[in-house]
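An example makes the point: we let one protein speak, the chain in one-letter code, the fold tokenised, and here it is:
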Amino acid sequence: MGQAIDPQKAEQHFRELLKKFDTAMLVTHTSPSGPTHARPMAVAETDADGSIWFISRADAPKIDEISQDRDILAVFAEPRQYLSVSGRAELSKDRARIKKVWKESFKTWFDKGADDPNIVLIRLNPSEAEYWDNTGAQGLRFALKYAKAYVTGETLKGPGEVEAHAKVQL
């Protein structure tokens, strides 16, 4: 089994990886004890502390879901890079923040622009993240370990075996 990944390095890599994504699947509970529901969302902004901001219509079902259960999950995926971030949601109608995170592409949903009174922000305050990054040198090391395991009939054991994977407590 490989060495454990330095938690500070893992957290730094999480923050760098998070900046690369512009969309996520945002997962909420349909009711406090109900099933989950996922939908694609554009990332409005990410903060240095790992918080992720999304923009929504205040009358969207996800806002009711978040009001009932603030535990949410955002899942990001690109070829060979994956990120899962869980935490608590916070809803905000802060007009200054809305203007700060506004992107012209949001006009598709809000024809009145950043001044639309039906805009609400969703802030995911992360508590835990997990990533899989099989790009660059890490990806090459993973490919070699994978090939070796395949040829020898061994199995990869888990996160400590591959540097490209880590869990981060935030």
About this structure: The mean pLDDT is 87. Residues 136-152 form the longest helix (17 residues). The radius of gyration is 18 Å.
